[in-house]
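R.M. (postdoc): so does anyone remember the format we settled on? I'll just put the structure tokens first.
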């Protein structure tokens, strides 16, 4: 169990403790410390502290209760992100720490740090910190974005070198506007978190060159759209980059025409074959997920227009071949794998457009033997095209079923819980191209909930 203390840099304590809370960061409760004093003290103490180190920066309202001081929140949070193992809180002050105020930045998972703290010159030049902390603009890079802190007392404008995307916040939208920029002005004693702009997206099956848009399940756009293009694959190829082996790193599956390739996270090719034969008529469909509930994923490949469906291990070995489901007869089918009803196992979710029948969602159990439930997402008279995917859009650890159908000339997204109970719906504005749209789901703003990805050609 780590032992941390509050409030002392006393030399003889340091080798007996694992860390410390820095109350009223950065000034301390007497408010006579400068930012660089505190930051340098942390650096010094952590060299002497016992391992399993844990620190807390408590920034607060200085006992005023002004919880809308977002600049102060960002200043403390940004500073805490510059070094490892620092937790952050923002509350009332030393007279009371019982508040649980929440800030937009807390919703963003920046991922693991990928750089040490760095100094940023006004021309944007970035250099790794060598000496002690001093009033400057500081930057640290993370897997999903960057943290910046201006510890001077005047605004600074810096060149970011490339485009970054502001988070889309509701509390201080002037700062967290969701806009894309390669240059930013940070006021004195302030900080900001920026996201990397995206040109590819993980965990979503897209066609190379698709335009992608991102919505929460209530229909609000959460990130800027973009054309997804992977240089290593042909235009129009189906691409899915996701973890399939349960080990660190993302693997990649590419379907070009009738051929499927599986690459491990280092880019080595595990599989390069025609899983349904080279001459199969129709589009080869792909769905990946933890059908059996293990850390490793299963892969389904199927002929969208007639079946059959094959189930493969994550590296391509056949588990079940030539599964013939009645849903594929005289139909066009899309498949997704998701855990819609809890438990360990996932389900196979079919979006079925069948001649002479309303377009339907049919959900099979993990053995692909028993239909667990089925429903008509747009009613018993809707016979149009139906696209479906799965994703946990509300963060309750169960996947919702997300559908897209064109009703009365409008593209209508609907979100369902297991059994077919509707959770939400929203209309999509038409795309520039007017081309067909498909769906995916992925957490693109790092808040732990999947967004709905709408892809169009
Ligand atoms: Ca992996
Ligand atoms: Ca389940
Ligand atoms: Ca859910
Ligand atoms: Ca999200």
């Amino acid at each position: 169990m780590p032992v941390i203390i509050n409030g002392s840099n006393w030399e003889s304590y340091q080798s007996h403790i694992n860390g410390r809370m820095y109350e009223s960061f950065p000034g301390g409760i007497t408010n006579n410390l400068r930012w660089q004093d505190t930051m340098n003290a942390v650096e010094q103490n952590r060299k002497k502290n016992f391992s399993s180190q844990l620190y807390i920066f408590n920034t607060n309202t200085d006992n005023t209760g002004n919880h809308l001081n977002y600049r102060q929140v960002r200043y403390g949070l940004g500073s805490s992100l510059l070094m490892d193992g620092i937790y952050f809180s923002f509350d009332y002050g030393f007279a009371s720490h019982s508040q649980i105020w929440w800030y937009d930045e807390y919703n963003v998972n920046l991922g693991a740090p990928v750089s040490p703290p760095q100094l940023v010159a006004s021309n944007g030049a970035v250099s790794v910190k060598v000496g002690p902390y001093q009033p400057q603009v500081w930057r640290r890079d993370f897997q999903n974005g960057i943290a910046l802190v201006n510890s001077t007392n005047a605004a600074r404008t810096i060149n970011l070198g490339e485009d970054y995307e502001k988070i889309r916040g509701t509390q201080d939208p002037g700062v967290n506007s969701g806009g894309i920029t390669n240059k930013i002005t940070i006021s004195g004693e302030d900080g900001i978190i920026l996201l990397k702009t995206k040109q590819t997206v993980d965990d979503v099956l897209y066609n190379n060159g698709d335009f992608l848009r991102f919505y929460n399940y209530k229909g609000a756009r959460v990130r800027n759209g973009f054309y997804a293009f992977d240089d290593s694959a042909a235009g129009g190829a189906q691409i899915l980059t996701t973890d399939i082996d349960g080990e660190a790193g993302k693997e990649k599956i590419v379907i070009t025409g009738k051929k499927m390739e599986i690459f491990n996270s280092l880019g080595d090719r595990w599989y390069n074959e025609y899983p349904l034969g080279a001459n199969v008529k129709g589009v080869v469909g792909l769905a990946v997920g933890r059908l059996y509930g293990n850390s490793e994923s299963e892969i389904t490949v199927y002929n969208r227009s007639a079946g059959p469906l094959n189930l493969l291990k994550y590296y391509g070995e056949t588990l079940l071949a030539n599964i013939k489901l009645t849903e594929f007869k005289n139909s066009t089918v899309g498949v997704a794998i998701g855990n819609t009803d809890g438990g360990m196992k996932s389900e196979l979710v079919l979006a079925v457009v069948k001649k002479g029948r309303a377009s339907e969602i049919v959900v099979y159990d993990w053995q692909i033997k028993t239909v667990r439930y089925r429903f008509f997402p747009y009613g018993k008279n809707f016979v149009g095209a139906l696209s479906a995917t799965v994703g946990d859009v509300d963060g309750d650890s169960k996947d919702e079923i997300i559908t897209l159908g064109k009703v009365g000339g409008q593209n209508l997204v609907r979100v369902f819980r297991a059994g077919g109970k509707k959770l939400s719906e929203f209309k999509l504005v038409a795309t520039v191209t007017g081309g067909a749209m498909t769906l995916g789901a992925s957490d693109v703003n790092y808040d732990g909930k999947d967004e709905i990805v709408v892809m169009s050609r």
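R.M.: ...and that's the designed sequence above, right after the tokens. Also worth knowing: Residues 392-394, 396, 398, 400 surround calcium ion (ligand 3) (CB under 6 Å). The mean pLDDT is 94.
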